TrEMBL record:
Transmembrane segments: 49-81, 93-113, 194-218, 230-250
Role: Plays a role in the flagellum-specific transport system.
Species annotation: Paenibacillus zeirhizosphaerae
InterPro entries hit by this protein: FliP, T3SS_IM_P
Family per record: Belongs to the FliP/MopC/SpaP family.
Protein's name according to its UniProt entry: Flagellar biosynthetic protein FliP
Pfam families: FliP
Membrane topology value: Multi-pass membrane protein
Keyword set, alphabetical order: Bacterial flagellum, Bacterial flagellum biogenesis, Bacterial flagellum protein export, Cell membrane, Cell projection, Cilium, Flagellum, Membrane, Protein transport, Signal, Transmembrane, Transmembrane helix, Transport
Cellular localization per UniProt: Cell membrane; Bacterial flagellum basal body
Length: 252
């Protein structure tokens, strides 16, 4: 059951990536058939160009995953936790990115489920055309991004493109919604990171002042404050509080 859920989530992410490409193109994505030893029925180079375009879409898929989901906020906040603790490479990058990916799948599960029900499954059954399915797939992801995007950021890109004020957020193109959502997530993540720094900064100040008063100038304050910061983080169950704050931040 878990394998089916993960596979469906990956398919939905790829489906959303293709929707961004199709939204910027006038024609639907062409079907690609590879015949060994056959001849190209279309114009010379058409199939090769289509394959290159498809590979390009797949190569930018990680960037789209980071900018269209909750991944950006989560991975930045987890990075701030490690920096504020001063543990350098602990936890390692692989652990932080892996945790951010699974938290992203957990938070985005309702959105992916809606995309699966309204777009992917009807398209696989043949009830929707490619353009209709791509349009349906955009609606849930736009709803998620709009709910966490500041109006100020949306107006910035709307004014730059000189587009008219839409009647609802579903009429806002992804080329405007995605960067506005990204910079909104950056601001929220840095606000949460600032709050994480305060208690550890107080510990550093206390330790540094104590060492100065004792005349121990040659002893680095980081060596003394690091165990206290780790102890404080463990005693208050820091990882639980950080993950809980991230989950609650996406419920507002």
């Amino acid at each position: 059951m878990r394998k089916k859920i993960i596979l469906a989530s990956l398919l939905l992410v790829l489906f959303s990536f293709l929707s961004v490409t199709a939204a910027s193109a006038a024609e639907p994505i062409p079907d690609i058939n590879i015949d060994i030893g056959g001849q190209d029925s279309g114009q010379p180079g058409t199939t090769s160009l289509s394959i290159i375009l498809l590979i390009t879409v797949i190569s930018v898929a990680p960037a789209l995953l980071m900018l269209m989901t909750s991944f950006t906020r989560i991975v930045i906040v987890l990075g701030f936790v490690r920096t504020s603790l001063g543990t350098q490479q602990m936890p390692p990058n692989q652990v932080l990115v892996g945790l951010a990916l699974f938290l992203t799948l957990f938070i985005m599960a309702p959105t992916f489920a809606t995309m699966n029900e309204t777009a992917l499954q009807p398209y696989l059954k043949g009830d929707l055309s490619q353009s209709e399915a791509l349009q349906k797939a955009q609606e849930p992801i736009k709803t998620f991004m709009f709910s966490h995007t500041r109006e100020k950021d949306l107006l910035l890109f709307m004014k730059y493109t000189k587009m008219e004020k839409p009647s609802n957020y579903q009429e806002i193109p992804l080329t405007v919604m995605v960067p506005a959502f990204a910079i909104s997530e950056l601001k929220t993540a840095f606000q949460m990171g600032f709050m994480l720094f305060i208690p550890f900064l107080i510990i550093d100040i206390v330790v540094s002042s104590t060492l100065m008063a004792m005349g121990m100038m040659m002893l680095p304050p980081v060596m003394i404050s690091l165990p206290f910061k780790i102890l404080l983080f463990v005693l208050v169950d820091g990882w639980y509080l950080v993950v809980k704050s991230l989950l609650l931040s996406f419920n507002t």
